[in-house]
Design goal:
This protein has 401 residues and is of the alpha/beta class. The chain has a single domain, classed as 3-Layer(aba) Sandwich (Rossmann fold), CATH 3.40.50.1820. It is 31% helix and 13% strand. It has helices at 17-21, 156-169, 183-194, 213-227, 247-261, 264-271, 289-301, 307-318, 329-334, 353-362, 383-386, 388-399, and strands at residues 43-51, 57-68, 78-82, 109-110, 115-116, 121-125, 177-181, 202-205, 340-345, 373-375. The chain is globular. It starts with 16 loop residues before the first helix and ends with a helix.
């Protein structure tokens, strides 16, 4: 595995010494893409003033996005693909030239694939609050200093409002489909509830209708790992020298998250009780292989992500409740009558299938009636990023309607 492959899109496996060696240098204070870095395949949509629903505003917000395929003359083939918490706009393409990792869904989106770019014009934005080109805590405010702790509290609805403005920027009046997994699935649900007339088809993958107390508690521990890192400095750490950013807290949060993204079955089968080296972890200073795996990916993550964005986006996930102010989940989802796919994963311990069951129950156009489609996978929540052969036929069913 190339160390620039997104860790959530491949099966777990042993870490090599060469991979560890690739990460020996001190990381910068933030792994964010910054103005002046190579843009790669990014395009940028100016959004104007963005007011946030719980207070605060950004006077000149923007979304970074990427596109693939050709837009039809009538604009009727545009598909919006929405990423998970630590994803970005780079759905398809290699690492390098401004992209820290290779495309995170390259087995699903592309010529001849489930989301066929010979047929569809695919648009993938980096969400507001993120750190890969869209306005977020690491972006510069009008005073020339990073927003940092001043960045407004951001909700899922704020992020969808930004995506709605992207629709206008592109000169489009609707999406042929909105497809989202995990946090992107929260956005997809919000699109269906807020703008049902603008969404021809809907795919909600491995996402819940609301973020539950159990999920908020898991998120809270990750947030505290970042916030209690003394180098976080309340969110204003961007002028710190290399190696003195909030890396320990962010890496610890990532380790916790990975345990929720994978299943016990996969971790046990991959690593068992194997040692990382010939030195015993039983009182002799060695390590279990799974410990090295988590350490490596926590360290790697700090080089492509921003701690302030992590806090902002996890808080946005906690805000998610598609029924808030709409009479509950059922009333909110019944507003969307278009064809819909609801897809869960049987081993998902982050967003269990019970959440997808509730969503499917209330979507009138669900392809599978009142039940979700369920993938049988050992990979847990990340199964939707790994199990391309299982995910593809379901998206094919939706896009054939």
């Amino acid at each position: 595995m190339d160390w620039q492959t997104p860790e959530d899109s491949v099966p777990s496996r042993f870490v090599t010494e060469a991979e560890v060696g690739a990460l020996l240098a001190n990381p910068p204070s933030s792994g964010a893409w910054r103005d002046g870095d190579r843009p790669g395949d990014r395009l940028f949509a100016p959004l104007g003033r963005l007011d946030f629903e719980h207070g605060g505003s950004i006077p000149h917000a923007r979304l970074a996005y990427e596109t693939w395929g050709t837009l039809d003359d009538d604009g009727g083939n545009a598909v919006l693909v929405l990423h998970a918490l630590t994803g970005d706009s780079h759905v398809l393409g290699g690492a390098g030239n401004g992209h820290a990792t290779a495309g995170w869904w390259a087995g699903i989106v592309g010529p001849g694939l489930a989301v066929d770019t010979d047929r569809w014009f695919v648009v993938a934005p980096n969400m507001i609050g993120g750190c890969q080109g869209s306005t977020g805590p690491s972006s510069f405010a009008p005073d020339g200093v990073e927003w940092g702790s001043r960045f407004p509290y951001t909700s899922i609805r704020d992020q969808v409002e930004a995506q709605h403005r992207l629709l206008g920027h592109l000169g489009l009046d609707r999406w042929a489909a909105v497809i989202g997994g995990s946090m992107g699935g929260m956005h997809a649900l919000e699109w269906a509830a807020t703008h049902p007339e603008l969404v021809d088809r809907l795919a909600v993958i491995a996402a819940p209708p609301v973020t539950t107390a159990d999920q908020i508690s898991l998120n809270f521990v990750q947030l505290e790992a970042v916030r209690t890192d003394p180098h976080f400095q309340g969110g204003d750490y961007y002028d710190a020298p290399d190696g003195e950013g909030p890396h320990r807290g962010l890496a610890l949060a990532r380790r916790m998250a990975l345990l929720n993204y994978r299943s016990p079955g996969e971790l046990n089968a991959r690593f068992e009780r194997s040692w990382q080296s010939s030195v015993s972890p039983l009182g002799h200073g060695g390590r279990f292989a799974v410990e090295s795996y988590l350490d490596f990916h926590g360290n790697k993550f700090t080089r492509r992500f921003d701690a302030g964005s992590y806090v902002t986006l996890v808080e946005a996930m906690n805000s998610h409740d598609v029924g808030r102010g709409r009479g509950g989940v059922g009333a909110a989802l019944r507003a969307y009558a278009g064809p819909s796919l609801v897809l869960g994963i049987d081993s998902d311990r982050l967003f269990p299938v019970s959440g997808q069951e509730e969503i499917a129950l209330h979507l009138p156009g669900n392809l599978d009636g009142t039940r979700p489609a369920v993938l049988r996978s050992d990979f847990g929540h990340d199964g939707f990023l790994i199990e391309n052969a299982l995910v593809a036929p379901h998206l094919g069913r939706l896009l054939a309607v």
